[in-house]
Fold:
Amino acid sequence: MNGALLVIFYLIDSFIHSREKKTAHLDKPVGRERFAVNGMINVLFLLGVLATVYSYGAIFPKSWGYWRDAAQIVIMAALAWLSMKTTPRGIRAKNEFFYAPLKEVAIIYAAIFACMIPALNILEYKASQGKST
Structure:
């Protein structure tokens, strides 16, 4: 099934790509550009995300309950905010960064999790009753 889907997606993507106009930036002469990594502060923020994920299971006590989840969310949101504030806008502009793909992924994940809630509730109920599926 996965192979069939990959072939279908490839064919659709190839058809759409063949109909697109060539963009202006591809017609520009390609010059040599010095390789550089900008925004290295973000490596620290990524390490902070990894540390937060690790801390959730290893350091934050389970007795915190939902506060443990809230702490993880707040810390990751703070790291994301710091990344946006410390990275120069020019870097994001040069990389053509925008939020549309992030919004799409957030909507898809919200839909998936919303659909999972009833199924998880049924499984939890059946487990509490000692019944199998």
Q: What stands out?
A: The mean pLDDT is 86.
